[in-house]
Amino acid sequence: MNANHETLPAELWLEIFEHLEERSYSALYTPFQPSDTARDVKSAYSAVVLVCRNWHNWATSFLYRNVKLPDSVSSWATTRPEYGRWVRRMTLLSDSLSPAQIFGICPNITVLDRRQPQRLTFNRNVPSPALSLKRLDWLIYGHDAIGSVDPLWEVLCAAPNLEYLFLSMPRTESYIGCSHDFTKVMHLPSLRTLRIGVANIDLVRCISLWSLPSLTTFIMDSPLIETGVRLVWANHGSHLQTVELANYLLRHDRSIARCLQACPALHELNYHLFVMKGRTPRSQSSVCISVYILKCRGSGHTWSGIFSLSQGCPNLRTLKLYETPKWMSADDRFAVMLKPLIDRGCVLEILDA
């Protein structure tokens, strides 16, 4: 690297280092992102700290921002407590620490990710406030609620400032009744984004009863049974402003039409390109539509799914096309289909996800 890098102010380099991993602990919604946002950035920071003495001093704390829970973490509380204060995202891989202990050792944690089937231990008598926790990605296992404490419930109760929640179940357990007490009603006053992966009707029914006054964004990753979809729309659809539907949902049902009907305040609809069949859905409120095109392998009939829906939204102001293949944008039919939208003042944006 050119030696001139040492002449730049430390504040500039710290800003650059910050952006290396910002997505991995962000609670903000971005269209068409995988549910697992964990990224292995330690290798990048390991290289950064070797550049020079200054960079080593500036970037050392970043090495501990995104960690996976090893057994040694518990020693931080006594040996190097500053390590725990640096952590922003933690992935649970073992049950060596309970969430109460994690929140005590890592008071600034922003994202907690639990996907492994390890049993979690809790102590109701130990307070575990997680005021800094903004995002929770949680895979629910049938054995979680065996005993007196439901770990998911305990974490949610300890996180009043939670803004982003992803819930899913292993596909092998989604058809099995589990021991969770789904009759309890949760109040999450700050939750803005709810993402549901694989879920059975018990889980969906539970979520539909929750109090979510700030909820504006809903992401549905997997097909829900008819009853489940109706419950979500009926209880939360009236205040949703952004909805994202997974790529395989729309081949089997009328998810878009039902979404538009149940969400009168919908501002932004994000979906994967599919073959639009039947009557074109209509929405007076939608002003932005985003379409993910990368996996499209169809003819002009397939493309018409973009434009038929656009025609059903007379107040549409922005059409965003993600991952548009070059062969599609170079096709003469593409420009012909876009012309009516452009003529009425609709802005076209071609973006990368």
From TrEMBL:
InterPro entries given in the database record: LRR_dom_sf
**Origin superkingdom:** Eukaryota
Q: Which protein, by its recorded name, is this?
A: F-box domain-containing protein
Q: Which organism is this protein's natural source?
A: Mycena metata
Source lineage: Eukaryota, Fungi, Dikarya, Basidiomycota, Agaricomycotina
